[in-house]
Amino acid sequence: MPDAGRAPASNEPDVGDVVVTVADVLAAQARLRRYLPPTPLHHAERFGVMLKLENLQRTGSYKVRGALNALLAARERGDRRPVIAASAGNHAQGLAWAAYRLGVQAITVMPHGAPQTKIAGVAHWGATVRQHGDSYDEAFAFAKELAEQNGYRFLSAFDDPDVIAGQGTVGIEIAPYSPDVVIVPIGGGGLASGVALALKSQGVRVVGAQVEGVDSMIRAMKGDTAPKDPVASLADGVRVKVPGFITRRLCTQLLDDVVTVREAELRETLVRLALEEHLIAEGAGALALAAGRRVAGKRKCAVVSGGNIDATVLAQLLSDVRPRPPRKPRRRNAEGEPSLPSPRAPARAAARLPIKTGTRRIAVAATETEVHEESIW
């Protein structure tokens, strides 16, 4: 596995020799298991993809993993300073919940225009909420300034080794289901970096997903590090002008690919998730699944990273977006592993299953593995 700390680029002086390894992810898993039960995997048959449901996580997003691991690791080091963070919402909620559980003072800086459901979630857990600026990057600069003035610990939403390691526990929970490719959304790169650290040694391909016009990471990986304002997007959780420096190195070294999707595809995927799979996701949460049709794989897994969407936004999407009807699946016998994700799926005995189609009956032979509908992707 490549050394994440070697030869930092000249424009990355702040991260220097910072190294994050699989050992850090395993240590994070040991810390978090007491507080956070594993989230489920759901087989979305109509999409032909397994979904890692981080929208069912505490505070409705995977972000609580990194925040809690960072606070626990700081406590082990004897660091009891108040913690401040900038966030579009999910990192702030995760930090607020973790600080409440551990009795740590937390301050969150959120941009104006952040979803009200996320602001309310932060306040619910007792963290101080400050709103500043119109983007994550403006909130970030203000939070850094407050940290320096008051001696707080600044906790990045993604460019922190403890945060990256905590997000990597998502990959550890996916590993027993043996996917051949895992798709993750990318904003600043914390989730993608952590999941890639956890899974690359297992031979699993890891692919990142971004939205057209909100693609700072893929541009940085290609050498274009000039700050560029992201366009307005439903995926507010990944609207980052400058990705992390630690995460940029890790993503460049470990990701197999990064794909971009159109805004219209993202909106349609979110609505289909609600109507067909009965799952509520926010814009960034549906991003990996929207990218799934561009990624080849027999056992694909997409991370549904969060479900904190404003009710008014969801209602408007359900009113405006009319998804195209999916193709009718063809019946076929599975030749490989069962499509239903299970680390220990028992074999089924051969049987004759009568299936009624229209006005005639068709007998379909079930082999030792399950009969399932062919993926529409």
UniProtKB/TrEMBL annotation:
Q: Which SUPFAM superfamilies match?
A: Tryptophan synthase beta subunit-like PLP-dependent enzymes
What this protein needs as a cofactor is: pyridoxal 5'-phosphate
Among Pfam families, the record links this protein to: PALP (PF00291)
Q: Which residues form the Tryptophan synthase beta chain-like PALP domain?
A: 37-304
Supply the EC number(s): 4.3.1.19
Tell me the superkingdom of the source.
Answer: Bacteria
What InterPro entries does the record point to?
A: Ser/Thr_Dehydratase, TrpB-like_PALP, TrpB-like_PALP_sf
Q: Recorded GO terms, molecular function?
A: threonine deaminase activity
Record key words, sorted = Lyase, Pyridoxal phosphate
Question: What Gene3D superfamilies does its record include?
Answer: 3.40.50.1100
Region span, Disordered: 322-352
Which top EC class is named for this enzyme in its record? lyase
What's the protein name?
Answer: Threonine dehydratase
What is the source species? Pseudoxanthomonas mexicana
